[in-house]
Design brief:
Shape: globular
Number of strands: 8
Number of helices: 8
Strand content: 5-15%
Helix content: 40-55%
Length: 246
């Protein structure tokens, strides 16, 4: 499934057009959540994945009834549980895994220096967070979210990240004892900025994903899970390029 990363271009018309094509929304703030709802994206097609979420933003996600809220840390998970309990709600949750190694795939570093890691939890905290969510009457763990790198043109590297993320999600779900429902593999689909750069090969990407999908379908742990991809830059940039040639 696809969820458009609204931060790439939050114009209501853009989000509404993509929603009309069946694309969901990935939002990173309360403002982006409001935009997605105004654009007609159904709450069950919205994932709230932004880092550093404040309590009012978590409450907005709970009240809207979004598909899932990604939590970056045990502390955020505890805050979300409290907010859900006060609202009398059960909130679907994705646990964000840190993916430091994949940062090497980025051609242009947009945030932090070369040693900066991605948001998310390391293995021990990820396991503890999953068990906490299973025990809570106000949280419903759905799976794992892991964003590897931005603006990647290597289709094989993107597919490798997706395969590794789904495998990790399967291990976390099995270990904590909940059914794997959703794996958010992030975005990262790149576009060429230089004349010498080759575009992302979607044919290779599709073939690699088809092989992975066959493997997931044969595994009882992953058979019923939905895989979510969050293109933002790729959809917005392609739209701009098509507009210039129209």
């Amino acid at each position: 499934e696809l969820a458009y990363a609204v931060k790439a271009n939050p114009a209501v018309g853009v989000v509404a057009h993509l929603a009309s094509l069946g694309v969901g929304a990935d939002v990173a703030s309360a403002g982006e959540l409001e935009t997605a709802l105004r654009a007609g994206v159904a709450p069950e097609r919205i994932v709230f994945t932004g880092p550093g979420k404040r309590d009012p933003e978590l409450l907005a996600a709970v009240e809207a009834g979004v598909r899932a809220v990604t939590v970056e840390s045990l502390g955020e998970l505890v805050r979300l549980e409290r907010i859900a309990a006060e609202a009398g709600a059960i909130v679907p949750v994705l646990l964000r895994a840190a993916t430091d190694a994949a940062a090497a795939l980025e051609r242009v570093r947009l945030v932090g220096d070369d040693g900066a890691g991605k948001f998310g939890m390391e293995a021990d905290d990820l396991t503890e967070a999953a068990r906490f969510a299973v025990r809570s009457p106000h949280l419903e763990p759905h799976g794992v979210h892991a964003f590897g790198a931005s603006n990647v043109l290597d289709a094989g590297a993107l597919a490798d990240h997706i395969g590794a993320t789904v495998a990790l999600a399967g291990r976390i779900a099995t270990g904590a004892g909940f059914p794997l429902r959703l794996v958010d593999v992030g975005g990262g689909l790149g576009i060429p900025y230089e004349a010498h750069e080759e575009s992302l090969d979607l044919v290779v990407f599709e073939r690699r994903l088809a092989k992975l999908a066959a493997r997931w379908a044969a595994d009882p742990v992953t058979r019923n899970a939905r895989i979510l991809l969050e293109p933002g830059r790729y959809l917005a940039a392609r739209g701009c390029m098509l507009g210039k040639t129209a």
